[in-house]
Write a structure and sequence with these properties.
Blueprint lengths: L1 H8 L12 H48 L1
């Protein structure tokens, strides 16, 4: 829970509560969490794409070495 509050503190829109309706404030909190989740998901995708690219490079190098040897 404490991490959640620290993550929400990074969202400038939530620093002051200038909204007239409580629903608007709760939706802003929900949107902030959604954006945090999407950023985290983006980092995971980038890491997995980098690993997959590294695998492909190593397969290509192994294939070229095999071709040279034979």
């Amino acid at each position: 829970v404490e991490r959640s509050f620290s993550w929400l503190e990074k969202c400038r829109r939530l620093w002051k509560n200038c909204e007239r309706l409580i629903n608007t404030s709760t939706h802003m909190v929900i949107l902030a969490f959604i954006s945090l989740i999407l950023k985290d998901f983006e980092q995971v995708l980038k890491k997995s794409a980098a690993k997959e690219q590294q695998k492909q490079i190593s397969y290509d190098v192994a294939w070229q070495e095999w071709l040279i040897a034979n």
